[in-house]
Amino acid sequence: MPFFGFYSKRVLCAPKALGSTSERAAAATRAAAATATTTKERVPLSLLRSRTPPNIPDGAAAAAAAREACHAVARAAAAAAAATAAAADPASVAGDKLAYQVSTAKASATAAAAAAKAVSLVAGAPSELKGKYIALFFGASWCPHCRTFATRLHQVYTQLQHLQEQLRQQQERQQPPQPQFETIYIPCDRSPVEFAAFASTMPWYGVGAKM
Fold first, then answer.
1. Chain segment 126-162, per-residue pLDDT in tens
2. 138 forms bridges with which residues in the sheet?
3. What InterPro entries has UniProt attached to this entry (predicted)?
4. Secondary structure of residue 125 in the 3-state scheme
5. Among candidates 197, 209, 191, which has minimal Cα distance to 113?
6. How far apart are CA 116 and CA 44, in angstroms?
7. N or C: which end of the chain has fewer CB within 10 A?
């Protein structure tokens, strides 16, 4: 099921007392161990956006059909590009386990970048979000409810962007201007190919592997 959250204020996290000194020390040790375990698995992420998002017609059925068709084409293009990139830069099969892991990670990143490029995803700057209200869309391409929600959100997003442009023109002389809004897709897709294909059907940002 999709989840849609609206974020407008900075989140402040206050430290919470954990009990005795020994308990705090044990918690710190566990946190350090968890950080050390996950550091090697981190993948650089960036904001990605479709250069040519599809036009969605009015009407639920027509809009859903248009997005599904666009998604199918994008999925095929992304899969082909990722496969070509992976074949051109295969992971090492050396006995060194660390070298193999590094090579595999590089090959995966190359395939992800190729998939994103094949469907015309371009990187955006985080500074573009400054001063805006942020709506977070958690979903996945394999979830039919998420695809249905994405279609509805696409229609609303397009209407609101048009309204924002009208308000911006009216408020050009107003100081300070009213904040705008933006949407960010937080993916739960199973692969970079699935993410790239789904993100290419969206006019808003998605969080994907750095290109």
1. 888 888 889 999 999 999 999 999 998 998 898 888 8
2. 3, 186
3. Nucleoredoxin-like, Thioredoxin-like_fold, Thioredoxin-like_sf
4. coil
5. 209
6. 14
7. N
165-197 in b/e form (b: 16+ CB < 10 A) is: eeeeeeeeeeeeeeeebbbbbebbbebbbbbbb
Q: Which two tokens stand for residue 47?
A: 């904001």
Distance CA 188, CA 206 (A): 11
Which is higher by pLDDT, 143 or 96?
143
Joined together, the tokens standing for residue 49 give: 């956006």
Helix (H, G, I), strand (E, B) or coil at 176: coil
Give the pLDDT confidence of 50-83 residue by residue, as tens digits: 988 888 777 778 888 888 888 889 989 988 988 8
Report how far residue 98's alpha carbon sits from residue 52's, in angstroms, rounded to the nearest whole number: 39
Strands 45-50 and 133-139: unpaired
* Residue 154 tokens, joined: 């696409």
| The CATH fold of domain 45-72+121-209 | Glutaredoxin (3.40.30)
The four Cα atoms 81, 209, 162, 151 give a dihedral, to 10 degrees, of 70
| Two structure tokens written together for 171 | 């408020």
Given a contact cutoff of 8 angstroms between Cβ atoms, the answer to whether 4 and 138 are in contact is: yes
> CB 86: neighbour CB atoms within 10 A?
15
Q: Is 76 exposed, middle or buried (CB count within 10 Å of its CB: 0-12, 13-18, 19+)?
A: middle
* E strands present in 61-106: none
